[in-house]
Amino acid sequence: MAELGSPKFLRRLEAPGVDQGRAITFDRPLVLDCGRELVPLTIAYMTYGTLNAAKNNVVLVCHALSLDQFVTGRHPVTAKPGWWETMVGPGKPIDTNRFFVICANVIGGCMGTTGPASVDPATGKPYGLSFPVVTIRDMVRAQAMLLDALGIEQILCVTGGSMGGMQVLQWVASYPERVISALPIATAARHSAQNIAFHEVGRQAIMADPDWRGGNYQNEGVQPSKGLAVARMAAHITYLSEAALQRKFGRSLQNRNGLSFAFGPDFQIESYLHHQGMTFVDRFDANSYLYITRAMDYFDLAADYNGVLAEAFIGTKTRFGIVSFTSDWLFPTSENKRVAHALNAAAANVSFVEIETDRGHDAFLLDEPELFAAVRGFLNSAAASRGIE
Amino acid sequence: MSELRPDLAAIAEMIGEGARVLDVGCGDGALLEYLSRTKRVDGRGIELSQQNVNACVARGLSVVQGDADADLAEYPSHVFDVVILSQTIQATRAPSKVLADLLRIGRHTIVSFPNFGHWRVRLSLLIDGRMPRTRALGYDWYDTPNIHLCTIADFVALARGSGAVIERALALGGKGATHPMRPDAWGPNLFAEGAIFLLRSA
Fold first, then answer.
1. CATH number for the domain running over B6-201
2. What would the pLDDT profile of A339-384 be if each residue is shown by its tens digit?
3. Residues belonging to chain A with any Cβ–Cβ distance to chain B shorter than 8 Å
4. Which residues in chain A are closer than 8 Å to B74, comparing Cβ atoms?
5. Order of strands across the sheet with B178-180?
6. Quick check: ipTM above 0.85?
7. What is the pLDDT of residues B95-124, one digit of tens each?
8. Which end of chain B, N or C, is less surrounded by CB atoms within 10 Å?
9. Which residues in chain B are closer than 8 Å to A373, comparing Cβ atoms?
């Protein structure tokens, strides 16, 4: 049975008046890929728009590694705008006047869904590293439990960028009959060696922080803030592109006329990265970062189908729209195209769009008119196929 | 909604209600959109130009970026009722391989192309001694994408050599008029600006 309540956040609310969404707690266990069970399981989620009577206007948004369920509107913890403000809302490409948008914080996360910072009922203390390692498939299983609890059988469109896109692909593989259309953006069917390598740098930075305390920092009243900030700084570089960095910062100096001949932030790019690291620490949990990056590393959809990606999609009736960006070197066009080719080989209904931009992987979060046009066109045609106004 | 180009309208006329259609080199998606609107076909496209692909997707069509030479191989056999290759075969690197792939993927294949046997083309080479530039073939020899031009008779030979059955053949006249023709007749090969063939995989 499931119980509905309000989410509990690790961090203080900066915008206490705004919608904090809901949390649903299951006392039935979620069996994970690693063989362990998660019980009780709380899933924190947000919804936008209205579910129609036929319950067929659902758009499920899956969030990326460092994001959460606050897709649009003010974030209750950071007081900042939602991460997909440009994409989701009334009249936006994912139009909340027409569609019922759901986004749930992933398991292992730190914005109200059960994760390593949650209390382990067996000990009464935060899980820390005793939290089971979760996978992308586990995240999708948890979302399916949420939809079941909400009485939603079919999803008109499941979408998301980056790790969100991995969940989209997993959704179709795991629950083909539930997904009418799938819109994975800037993603891959497997995490590349280079991407695993970057994640490992981030994890080692966290674990090298003396305040990490073997993952037990919560019980010891400290935070591995420096390690997490360094992890974020390294990762943030991979979300951008050389061209965008050059255009935005070049070699410009930060509030000084010449080089300091010291190790403070001489360059604007340095202080920009410091800022990214510092603000991240205010909203994210270090152990969550370990767990979620691990889930991405483990993702290899073809491995579940004898190494043949097309077999993950054999017989699928789902309509696919795949989007990549020319300057994205983290999830490059070649990885996205690999998915499109596998879908062609499975005779699936697929569109593939590559968008010209110099903004790198982060382009999926930014103001990219061609992205909006593609998403709008794709969603309109999915909606028309189901007779949705 | 703008009027469909006459050669595309002639192609559309050959396609049945609700067919599964793959349009190879679908351009901005005009034909696919027309077919899905008027004949409720289940349509897909392949298009080389990314700009065109993005435009198609924004129109709600299912189109992937790719090219006939490289990407047809990955499609499984016999999954489409009709595969269309409109005004494109002369721009492929390996027309015979492309045609073989089309015949494998679709139960029917529609191919249209400009006729290099047209009298203007023949005359241009005969009189001027220059590579022809005509209404249907408006490029200089050095910048043309049309690297494998053929006459109607040439195409008929290739189609038969590929084991295809010619079910219908249309001659494309000036101003887009279409006339049924006998594939082996000498007249259309001299007077038609282009041709449309409906082939069946034998």
1. 3.40.50.150
2. 998 998 888 999 999 999 999 999 999 999 999 999 999 999 999 9
3. 319, 321, 337, 340-341, 344-347, 349-356, 370, 373-374, 376-378, 380-381, 384
4. 341, 344-345
5. B62-65, B42-47, B20-24, B80-86, B106-114, B194-201, B164-172, B178-180
6. no
7. 999 999 999 999 999 999 999 999 999 999
8. N
9. 54, 57-58
Asked if residue A309 and residue A345 are part of one domain, the reply reads: yes
Q: If you search the block for the tokens 């606050």, which residue do you land on?
A: A70
Q: Nearest-CA neighbor of B68 among B7, B148, B133, B141?
A: B148
Residues A45 and A174 in one domain: yes
Question: Which residues does residue B113 pair with via DSSP β-bridges, in sequence order?
Answer: B195
Domain end among A258, A293, A328? A293
Residue A274 lies in domain: 195-293
Q: Report the domain count for chain A.
A: 2
Torsion sign (Cα): A158, A164, A167, A172: positive
Structure tokens at A126: 């935060």
pLDDT digits (tens, 9 = 90+) for A267-322: 999 999 999 999 999 999 999 999 999 999 999 999 999 999 999 998 899 999 99
* Structural domain ending residue among the three candidates A264, A293, A322: A293
d(C-alpha B89, C-alpha B160), whole Å: 16
Each residue's pLDDT tens digit, A152-166:
999 999 999 999 999
**d(Cα A387, Cα B196) in Å, to the nearest integer?**
36
Mutation site for A-interface testing, chosen from B42, B65, B83 by largest number of A Cβ within 10 Å = B65
Q: Name the residue type at position B186.
A: W
Q: Which of A4-18, A139-153, A157-171 bottoms out in mean pLDDT, i.e. has the lowest?
A: A4-18
- Dig out the tokens for B137 from the structure: 């073939």
Query: Tell me, what's the pLDDT at B128?
Result: 93
A265 and A134 belong to one structural domain: no
In this structure, what are the phi and psi dihedrals at residue A51, rounded to the nearest 5 degrees? -75, 125
- Does the beta-carbon distance from A347 to B79 stay under 8 Å? yes
With H, G, I as helix, E, B as strand and everything else as coil, classify residue B164: strand
For residues A15 and A149, membership in a common domain is answered with yes
Question: Which token pair is A214?
Answer: 């073997």
User: Which tokens go with B151?
Assistant: 């006459």
Give the separation between CA A246 and CA A240, rounded to whole angstroms: 10
Which helix (H) or strand (E) is A70 found in, with range? Answer: none
Decide: helix, strand or coil at residue A305: helix
pTM of the model: 0.91
